[in-house]
Amino acid sequence: MAKKAVYVAATRQHVGKTSTCLGLLQGLTSRIENIGFLKPVGQQSVLVEDNSLRVDKDVAVAKEIFHLNECHYADMSPVVIPPGYTRDFLDGKITLESQLQKIRQSFERITSMNDYTIVEGTGHTGVGSIVDINNARIAAELGVDMILIANGGIGSAFDDLALNHSMCKEYGVKVRGVILNKVLPDKVDMMWEYFPKALKQWNIPLIGVVPNLPALANCSMLDFEGLFHTRLLSGSDRRFQQYNSTSLVTSGLRRFLVKLSSNEYNDTLFVTHASRNDIILGFLSHAQNYEARTQQRFNGGLILTGVPPVDQPQDYIMEIISTANVPVLYAPVTTFEAMTKITRYTSKFNPTDRKKVLRCGEHYAKYINFDVVLDR
C-alpha cells in the first residue's frame, strides 16, 4: 500500500524549499490530525534533546513550531552529513545500504504514526549524489511522489525544472506537481495562465504560485548572533526585529544624525567600527529621543566591528550600551569581513522565532492547492 506522503525538492539553491514545506505543514494542520515530517539527509545541523542529538536545523523548526508530537527527532533526521562524511563514504567506511536503511526505517516509523508525511529534500534532485543518496534516489526508495519547487520567469523556471524532471524520470519518480515561488505579485496571473501550458508536455499540474514577500528574507539580530557567534550587548528582547536594509557608517557624526532624523532609516541595520564612539553615542541618543518623542519603537539596530583586543568597544561605552533598549551587537571581525558576511548571508528559520515561521507558513499555505498535494 502506498504511503500517504510526498517528497519536496527544489530545482536549485535558495528557491524557497523550506519556506514551501512550512506552508505545507501550516496548511495540513487544518486538514489532518497527525502530520509527519522528516528530512532524510541533513547538511546544516543543530543540537537537540539536551545537546545529546544532532539533527538538521529545518527538522528542529518543523517539530517545535508545529508540535509534531508523533515524530521523534532521531527519525526526523536519519542521516546528517558532518565534515569528513564524504571522505568516509569514498573510503568505504560508510555504505550506500547503511544510509538507505536508516532512511527507510525512519520513514516507516514516522508514516506508521501519522496520517500524512512531508519529506523535505536537500537542495535540488541531484544533491547528495556524491554519497549516492540524491533526492531522486531517496524518493524512489521510499516509493513517494515528488513536488518540485522553482522560481524565476517562465523560461528560467522551466529550464531548471527540465533538468530535475529528467533525474526524477531516470529513477522512476512521479512528479505530482510544481510550485512556483517568489513570483512578482504582478506576474502571478500570467504564470497561472502560461505555465500550465508549458507543463502540459509532461502531464504535470501547477499546484501553486506563491507571490514574493520580501520581508521573509529580512535578517534579524538573532541571525547575526549566529553569523558572528556572539550575543547582543543590549536590546535582547528585540533580537527578532528584522531590518529592511543595511548601511555602513563612515561619515562624520553630523551627517549621520541628519540621516537618522529623516526617519527613512528607522528599519535599518547600521554597521560601524567599534572605535566610533561618536556614532555609537549618537545612535543611542537618537533612538532614545525618537521613542520619547513619538511614543513608538525605534526599529534600527547597530553592529560594531573590530578585531580585539585593540579594536573593541571601550569599557565605559559598553556600560552605556548595556542600559540601552535598542539592539547593539559587537562582531569581533574587520568591517570589511563583517559587511561581506552580512551581504552574502541568507536568513534561515529558527525555532525560537515562532512569529516569523508562522508568518511564512500562513503566507505560503494560501497559494497551494492541497487537494493535489494530498492526491485527492
Automatic annotation (TrEMBL):
CDD domains tied to this protein: DTBS
Tree of life domain: Eukaryota
Domain DRTGG as annotated: residue spans: 231-344
Keywords, comma-separated and alphabetical: Glutamine amidotransferase
Keyword Nucleus: no
Keyword presence, Cell inner membrane: no
Name of this protein: DRTGG domain-containing protein
Organism taxonomic ancestry: Eukaryota, Sar, Stramenopiles, Oomycota, Peronosporomycetes
